[in-house]
Amino acid sequence: MHDTTPPPPPSADRFASLRRRGFLAVTAATSLGALSLAGCGGPGEGANDDEGDGAPKRGGRLRAAFAGGGAGETLDPHLSNLFADAARAKALFDKLADYGPDLSARPRLARTWEANAALDRWRVTVREATFHDGRPVTAEDVLHSYRRIADPKQAFRARASLEPIDLDASRATGQREVEFVLKRPTAEFPNVLAAFGAYIVPAHTTGFDRPVGSGPFRFVSFAPGRSALFRRNDDYWDGAPHLDEIEFVIANEESARVNALLGGQVEYAHELNPATARAHEGGGRIAIVRLRGSAMQAFCMKTDRPPFDDERVRQAFFLIADRQELVEAALSGAGERGNDLFGKGYEYYADGLPQREQDLDRARALLRRAGAEDLRVTLDTSAVAAGFTEAAGVFRDQAKKAGVTVDVRTGSKDSYWSDILDNGTLCCYRSGAMPIEAHISQRLLSDSTTNATKWRHRDFDDLYRQAQSTRDKKDRSAVYERMQRRLYSEGGFLIWGFADWILGTARNVRGVETNAPANTLDWARFDKVWLA
């Protein structure tokens, strides 16, 4: 879900490289409370630089502060949606594959995968690994997990990503070998294995009060909306963690996370805002870690309801936005402008489309043709994410110049993401890193479970399936470009920028990967972190 110690200002062509290494929605919960003070005290002297790092040290408890999801939080990895969910899930569980820093699929529990000539059957071999209770991870566990995720009665986020698999026909061909039968040829099937939330759980698991996974840490305790404590798994297939324990604590307010870090109550604070980074960068008390331009910033227009069911209104809003002003004002300049498409710099990104500029005259003309003069809309926002409330205020003022009245409504941090998924008409939105095809499958297909813009078009779904079934990469790229041109013209995401992702650590924290976009393998990789 993302972080680098700040490099020199990147050149224009370095931005593409950075962003390829550079997605999710985050929610929030309670204030930082009842923090455990066990483990390794406050920030250490002169740490988190290159001097004196030495070999990794074993031991200690690292406390990591995240925004959370309130009392309704769960350790069910298939319900992961927030950054806090994902960080806890990857500590306890594994997926068959995960995304590398370039967003390509890397093997995890899958040791190998191989397709037939038609690309409609894939053989996956599971590596030798054990669950925390000592049972081996088997092909049956894999099939059970995927069938659970695909249950149409559930709203598991990875369900849309697993849609290409015919799970009734797929079968175990050995204790550690699965033959996946697909509904159609799928050239990029390894991305399915790496899908967000597609974790492997033991067969016949019925609850997650005391979860058993195969991940680097074992469950100790969990208080929803407050904290979770996990202990090192000495038998982890990828090497035992350096830490004795990892404790996740919930602090919804960015100021609470920063103060806890400065006060020695935590050693890792997720998601800091640019002003905080500037105030502490190079100051010596804490270390600031950045990844340039890694978080998409957008406004979501619900395309299934007035006024945004009229594409002319959506096109007018594209032209109302002054993207550079939004980056400067809402992100304090810590990012760069977008062009209404996800994944700038990623594979398949349609970078040949002209950069949109504000054009208020054309916006007014489109609104007139749509019969939407003197339009009034409500823009939902929340302090759930850095820059959201600021972006809402800036866009309100920009829209006023086009004759549109925007009423800003500030929602609860605890429930913002669930509230805006189906309710309202216009809202602030963001995403961390994922392949463009995963963004489409999870958010832009008719049956996508996190389709916040309500973009539902069967011909668009067909284009996605055509792209997935196309063996030749050049031809596949052409189909993705067609899809993106349509979204650029009439989609529901007004993507105005890409923000730097920022976190802070105590000076004695080592091993935080600096080339790890959010939601990729090495983001929040606490099994590789140690305390100096």
Q: Roughly what percent helix?
A: 25-40%
DSSP E strands, number: 21
Low-confidence segments: 1-47
By DSSP (H or I, 4+ residues per run), the number of helices equals 14
Shape: globular
- Beginning-to-end CA distance, first to last residue: 24 Å
Structural class: alpha+beta
Rg on CA atoms, Å: 23 Å
How large is the share of residues in beta strands?
A: 15-25%
Largest sheet: 11 strands, mixed
Mean pLDDT: 89
SSE order and pairing:
Blueprint: H1 12-20, E1 61-66, H2 83-92, E2 94-95, E3 97-99, E4 105-107, E5 110-115, E6 121-126, H3 139-149, E7 171-174, E8 177-181, H4 189-193, E9 199-200, E10 217-223, E11 227-232, E12 245-250, H5 254-262, E13 268-269, H6 274-280, E14 286-301, H7 311-320, H8 323-330, E15 335-337, H9 360-369, E16 376-381, H10 388-400, E17 405-410, H11 416-422, E18 426-431, H12 436-443, H13 458-469, H14 473-490, E19 493-506, E20 509-510, E21 530-531
Parallel strand pairs: 1-12, 1-13, 16-17, 16-18
Antiparallel strand pairs: 2-9, 3-4, 5-6, 6-8, 7-8, 10-11, 11-12, 13-19, 14-18, 14-19, 15-19, 20-21
Question: In words, what does this structure look like?
Answer:
The chain is of the alpha+beta class. Helices cover 26% and strands 21% of the residues. It has 14 helices and 21 strands. Strands 1, 10, 11, 12, 13, 14, 15, 16, 17, 18 and 19 form an 11-stranded mixed β-sheet that branches. Strands 5-6-8-7 form a 4-stranded antiparallel β-sheet, covered by helices on one side. Strands 2-9 form a two-stranded antiparallel ribbon. A hairpin with a 5-residue loop joins strand 3 (97-99) and strand 4 (105-107). Helix 7 runs antiparallel to helix 9 (360-369) and helix 13 (458-469) runs antiparallel to helix 14. The protein is globular and about 65 Å long. Residues 1-47 have low confidence and may be disordered.
